[in-house]
Amino acid sequence: MPLARPTGQIPDAAWTSGFREMTEPWKGAVGCLGVAVFFTMTIGIISWQALEQSPEEWVLRGRAGGMLWERRRGALLLRALPAGRTVAVIAVGGVPAAEPPPPRDRCWHDGGQFCYAWEEDAELRLSLEPPPAPATECYGVRWTPLRPDVMLKDCFSMANVSWYGGASIRAQRWPLNGAESRAQPFVSGDFSKNPAGYGPVLERYFLGSTGVTVTVAPDVPLFLSLESNRHFCLETPAGRAAVPLRYLLCVSPDVAAAHRHVGSQLAGQARALPDTALLGSPIWRYYGPAGSAAKIKRGLRSLAKRLKRHRLQEGVLALGERCTAILAAADHVPSERRKRQDSTRAWDPSLIQPLRLSIVLSPYASIASPLFLRSLRDSEAASYWLSLQPRFGGCSVPLLTTWKGRLCARLNVTSEAALSWYLARARRLRQALGAAYVVFEGAEGNAFLERAVPPPAELAGDRYTGALAAALATLGNATVISAGARSSHLPLFVQMSPLRSDWSHAGLKGVIPSVLHYSLLGYNFFIPDAVGGSLASDAPGDPELYVRWLQIVTFLPVMAFSTPPWLCCDAWALNLTRQCIQRHRDFVVPLLKKYSEEWLSLGYPIFRPAWWLSPTDPTAFTIEDEFLIGDEVLVAPITEKGQMWRDIYLPGEGHLWMDTSTARVFDGGTILRNYSASLAEVPVFVKTS
After folding, report:
1. Which positions, given as ranges, span the membrane (predicted)?
2. Bridge-partner residues for 561, per DSSP?
3. Nearest Cα residue to 460 out of 471, 474, 448
4. 656 pairs with which residues across the strands?
5. DSSP structural state of residue 332
């Protein structure tokens, strides 16, 4: 009988009885040992996960940088190599961000792309794109929603990054980090209609102090929000099937190189200058009697005589839209009646010489105006004015909106017939009134979005502003427009928005940030708001504010006045105004003409921030009360009420700067503490090396 093999099992009875016989201390020791083993295994698993699964994972890598996915925040990181510094953090919204992309993506066969899809939500595609310069590397980012209700949203962190560009705002900041704005369509607007909206000049371009740029594709229906000192967000609205969010990320060695390589080329190579004769011509806005054409003519002659008496007889007299309409009313009088009128009643531009005249038009027509009523009578309303198309047949209806408190129709810039008629009318009025310049107000905004109506594809976003600007450029380079969007290359002056007559960022403090913003986006030839501000404040007239404002605009392209100095201040301010106008002509205009040639060839801004010469100095990134003209003149005015001194940052380590008032020389890359600047002075430095 074969022997049975031992099974190696412990008899139940023996085990049970042995365990029961264990004392209480031994039972506790065994329990502690089990707990220790459990914790050791848990720590080992966690350590293995931490070592094997890094919180950051490369998803696309180039030569100068790459994109990583950070699991903890659900964010894309743009990192520069070889230093490994993070230049942008992009928090992802609209998808389950906690879900990490896989180690092996759908585009694994293509080393220049990374693809991943969040199931039923959105698809992400990253790609290496051709660089604009050898030292710059670019990445395409494309989010595609997989359901109509998915809202795509990418938020760019402001932590350790100063951001510039994008949209102008009511109280302009430089950088944008201090601005606040709810999510709204990225469309130019009129602050008088919507103070919380975006202003008249914007571009889909953002520049970071780390050397990163963000350029959004022009056909993306874009929303932008700004959360002060936290982030700005790019969004696409939900409810539109498969509308992707697309933008280009580029990284360069520093912020100045980034703008030279990317931002300066936004408008392409074909740039043209406006009429540089306006640069040396102060603008005097007419606010005299406007009840009739005869009163306007007398008022213009009176203002011209006053200017001549005060030795300010050169420049431009600027009429507003209402006065222009009154003077031009005779243009609609039948020719036989016009012949019977006394010829001496016609406007004669020689009455104000050597001053020249500018007039104002807009693409709006009041529904009670003869112009609009005539278009209805002639059945031309559908082609001349923006219209709503009926859903189920029938006639189109003009889209009505408000302009300066009146219910109006707006010119249809998609109609060749409407544009030809409008431009011919502008040429006729300019000739009839002998105007040297024509200002076109009301170019900003999207009338369809204002009425909560989806715009046609050809007028989506800011395409109205761009189309109108392109048409107005055919009138010649003596044209001024009130808005800019993808039109910085055109030979047009841009009229800045009115500012408040106070010391806030909506007033004097906002002048230099606006100058830097406009110039960064390519709009170097702008007309700033009038000295002292155009919008009344709660405080009465302030001579100190007027003088400090005057000192800033002396160094800008055009000096504009709404309140003459003899009405605002005493004889001292009047004399200072003469001096500033002369300094503008003799010192500033030659500089502007010199650097306008550089803008034509290279696209570099004429008015530059301090970081242009100190692109790696964090101190320079947040300076909003100084600006450079080209590379050789630094202007550091006073923007605080009652202040007679200020700190001045001199950029460009290794350079020397000379104070034009005292001839003292200082090193670049330093800060001058408590530098004197009396009411009669504005600190100006010229680079000497």
Report:
1. 29-51
2. 284
3. 448
4. 667
5. G
Residue 453: Cβ within 10 Å count: 13
Nearest one of 474, 472, 447, 451 to 461, comparing CA atoms: 447
Amino acid at 653: E
Within 10 A of 339 (CB to CB), how many other CB atoms are there?
Answer: 9
- Show the low-confidence residues of the chain (pLDDT under 50): 1-22, 30, 37, 45-52, 103, 333-344
What per-residue confidence (pLDDT) applies to 267?
75
Which residue is associated with the tokens 């699991």? 71
Q: Quick count: other Cβ atoms within 10 Å of Cβ 460? A: 19
Pairing of the two strands 113-118 and 85-93 = unpaired
| Rounded-to-integer distance, Cα 584 and Cα 559, Å | 8
pTM summary value:
0.89
* Token digits of residue 24: 């209480």
Dig out the tokens for 10 from the structure.
């412990």
Q: Are strands 65-70 and 56-61 parallel, antiparallel or unpaired?
A: antiparallel
CB 552 within 8 A of CB 637: yes
Tell me how far apart the alpha carbons of residues 395 and 393 are, in angstroms, rounded to a whole number.
Answer: 7
Q: Is 202:466 a contact under the CB 8 Å cutoff?
A: no
Q: What does each C-alpha distance from 687 to 1, 113, 144, 612, 633 come to in angstroms?
A: 113, 46, 50, 14, 6
The pLDDT of residue 556: 98
Rounded to whole angstroms, what are the CA distances from 148 to 125, 126, 133, 370? 18, 22, 38, 46
In angstroms, the CA 568 to CA 546 distance is: 8
Q: What is the pLDDT of residues 567-605, one digit of tens each?
A: 888 899 999 999 999 999 999 999 999 999 999 999 999
Question: What's the chain's average pLDDT?
Answer: 87
Strand partners, 402: 407
Judge contact between 153 and 261, C-beta under 8 A.
no
- Which DSSP helix (H) or strand (E) runs through 450? helix 447-450
Beta strand 493-495 with 526-527 is parallel
Beta-bridge partner residues of 359: 438
Cα(257)–Cα(263) distance, integer angstroms: 10
Q: Secondary structure of 77-121 in the HEC alphabet?
A: EEEECCCCEEEEEEEEECCCCCCCCCCCCCCCCCCCEEEEEECCC
DSSP-assigned letter for residue 501: S
Structure tokens at 534: 């155009």
Cα 249–250–255 angle (5° rounding)?
125
- pLDDT value for 334: 46
Backbone φ and ψ of 101, nearest 5°: -65, 155
Q: What is the DSSP string of 228-296?
A: TTTEEEEEE-TTSTT--EEEEEEE-SSHHHHHHHTGGGTT-S------GGGGG--EEE--S--SSHHHH
Question: For the residues of 552-601, what is the DSSP string, one character each?
Answer: HHTTSS--EESS-HHHHS-HHHHHHHHHHHHHIIIIIHHHHHHHHHHHHH
Buried b (16+ CB within 10 A) or exposed e, 494-512: bbbbebbbbbebbbbbbbb
